Please model this.
Amino acid sequence: LLLMDPHISSTTMADEKEQQLREKIAFTTVADEKEQQLREKIASQKTHMANLPTLQSIVDETGFTSPATKARAQLIKELSDNEEQLELLLESKRVAAVIRLQDELHPPQNSEDCPICLETIKHVNSTTIIRFFCCGGWICKQCSNERNAKRKAGGVDEMFHGKCPLCREKMTRADNHKKAKCLALEHSNKGRAWAKSQIGSAYMGGMSDFPLDREKGVQFYKEAADQRDPDGLLELAVAYNIGYTGVLERDESKYLYYLGEAADLGHSRAQRLLALTHDDECNCEKGYLHYITLAASNGDYKAGVSLGHSYIFAQHGLTKSYTLGKHYSDPEKYSTEAEEGNPRAAFYLSISLYHQVDERFEGIIEIPGYSPIPKSLFWARIAMKKGSTETAGIATNLISILENDAKSHCANCRKEAENSSLKRCVRCLGAWYCGKECQVQHWKNGHKFDCIKRK
Model:
């Protein structure tokens, strides 16, 4: 009876909103204090460095490996690290403002707690959870990734033991698509929207022993969309964008409508696709930046790479920033899938690493311990090997430019090469030497911090 009391219910909701507001204010206050501290520290460092000789003058007088050069380079690095922290903090505040605006315009409607870690999943859809077809329950991607990491490492998964963590039934093998779809069909017959999206995809592709029947597939998508399932909305949008003769006419207005519905329900792929429509069709920088930021914040690595591209080339109203280009292009920020599946990210990371150091160190990029060349070459080579013809082509050009400059002289003694007589570091293939003595000395002087093992 107490729980049904409307007065108590409204009071509880008010208390929850007050608590959320307090948490937002606390976060904002801490961020503002940190920003102020960083700005003061940066200003102090710049004042101190303004009274010192330039890095170029020190290198000209004492060389690349002298204690004076190293000391000046370290000061530049400390300043650069603080500037990078400030840029990342300001970016986190920009992203938070975009998310806050989205939540105000479209309050989350399908938030649930993960039954394993109890973390609240703000938008439950196929991009944020892993669904179990046995019982229809789910766990968050983070819990799933931890489970898979244990399996790959050969460890024992104490929590699962090959069974569903929710209903304890034996789990269907990941490659047994037929069994999974049969279970999904059972859930679909019970009216579950997520399952209708799954069955719709099976009919649309003629997969898992389901016949190719696009009329049925579209019908399942429509039923899922009517129940406001984010995946169903997205798939129906894609179907309207493609159009199927005799089944569904291509309809751009319906494509944009259903895509917008899915995006505003927090589906990161839909948010990325909607951002592209703003960029390609209506040339709306504000709309593009809003939705591409949302998609990246929700873990869509392709959206992150696109955002990194916008920062590197100062597009969509953003100020050029190699720091944020590096931040959004770093495969480690997402997953192994991003590293293997998006060579563009590798290329953008390569040029970000190079230009970031080039800007900070007055164009002097070969100070051992502070050189970007080995890491820049590392990522450019990944882009060259795994990229499309276009990506591989521009990555090859970058590699050629970096290598031709680096192999023109010994990285240690600076002696110019004669008839390609220099030997390169076999670990990173990013430094050249006139002999073993120079290589050993260069390693001790700092190349050990720059060197990265090639794949």
About this structure: The longest strand covers residues 129-131. Strands lie at 112-113, 120-121, 129-131, 138-140, 423-424, 432-433. Residues 299 and 412 are 42 Å apart (CA to CA).
